[in-house]
């Protein structure tokens, strides 16, 4: 995977918080928490899921690849939605959590409070594309 492709991918992913804010502009808090149908998640639950997957699951999966472990830690998105009370989170708060944060130099993953690896630069920082590169390197 070329550096140019990684830069372009990060740029496109970096737009996600703004795109989400635009799509959800004008959505009131009640609508943000309303499930469209039984068994489906509300907009705020989906955003909380994205946040938690990236801040908790991405780093754990990247560590498995980088450290050469044999299996990923199990996740339980449906249980997390209930236990972590996603429907009670405010829409502005979860949107803010999706914005890039400061990198944690001790972590093998995205900055705390940041989802989808969107705010990471090239050259030493770990980003979503780096997991692909790490996985490719682990296979060779």
Order of helices and strands: HHHHHHH
Tally of discrete structural domains: 1
Distance between the termini: 14 Å
Shape: flat
Mean model confidence by pLDDT: 74
Largest sheet: none
Q: Which ranges are low-confidence, i.e. pLDDT below 50, for 5 or more consecutive residues?
A: 103-140
Question: Structural class, please?
Answer: mainly alpha
Per CATH, the class reads: Mainly Alpha
Short description:
The protein is mostly helical. The protein has helices at 3-14, 16-24, 29-33, 43-67, 77-83, 91-97, 128-139. The protein has one domain: Four Helix Bundle (Hemerythrin (Met), subunit A) (Up-down Bundle), CATH 1.20.120.
Give an account of the 3D structure.
The chain has one domain: Four Helix Bundle (Hemerythrin (Met), subunit A) (Up-down Bundle), CATH 1.20.120. With 140 residues, the protein is mostly helical. Helices cover 55% and strands 0% of the residues. It has helices at 3-14, 16-24, 29-33, 43-67, 77-83, 91-97, 128-139.
